Amino acid sequence: MEHVLLLNAKAVRDLVLASLLTLVSLSAAAQQVNLTSGEWPPYTSESIYQNGFAAEVVRQAYQAVGIKVHIGHFPWKRSYHYAETGTGLGGDVWHGSIAWVKTPERETLFHYSTPLLSDNMVLYSLKKAPIEWTTLTDLAGLTIGATEHTNYEILESAQNKGLIKLQRAGNYDILFQRLLAERIDAVPQLKSVGEFYLSNNVKGADKDKITRSDSILSTREFHLILNKANPNNKQFAADFDRGLAIIKQNGVYQDLINKLNRGRYNN
Hints:
Blueprint: H1 2-30, E1 32-37, H2 53-63, E2 68-73, H3 76-85, E3 96-100, H4 104-107, E4 110-112, E5 117-126, E6 143-147, H5 153-160, E7 165-169, H6 172-180, E8 187-190, H7 191-201, H8 204-208, E9 210-212, E10 218-227, H9 233-249, H10 252-261
Parallel strand pairs: 1-2, 1-3, 6-7
Antiparallel strand pairs: 3-10, 4-10, 5-8, 5-9, 5-10
Helix pairs in contact: 2-9, 2-10
């Protein structure tokens, strides 16, 4: 009987140990956030250092609170769709996406983090027809390029007032080609993104033809978005905010800003 009790005790101990190991394993597996993104260098890209500044901010913030990050790179439309529905091809789980501005529609679908980056939007134009402006009326009569599915609050307001015309295109390659061909007067772009684009995509004499305005259209803040369909995502949003506060306090975030300003994410 004593041997039976000892065996039973050992079996119970082994079962408890196995259960604990399983719980630890499941807990570790749960502490990973799967995020989508697209091509938007120097902030996000599959092919640049650490997948870009925004991606590294997200990784460092989550790492500060013990959470791993997996980033999948897709065309932006698909990236947003996977983030919204929470699933991709083959049933892959996607919690959210990097990095988006707030809109009323998106706020009904996603938990927003505190801003992970901000940048100033300015106008790029030809040097022979530079654009400097103080008020919207200074832009009267201009045709300004714009990408599809991007909100340009100030410029859209100017268009609604009949001051300017917005001409949309699918990407910045098309817009800058139109600018160089003098089919449009200006291209609005975030300063860091615009400088990256000109350095890497416009060469030689064409690059020398383009300048940018010192006037700021707007300062845009970008967030991590986590869909409301996943019950874990409210906590993951809070975890990110906590981690971001940590890396801002300990100097890691400023180090990343310094790398961005030095051009470390340009290739």
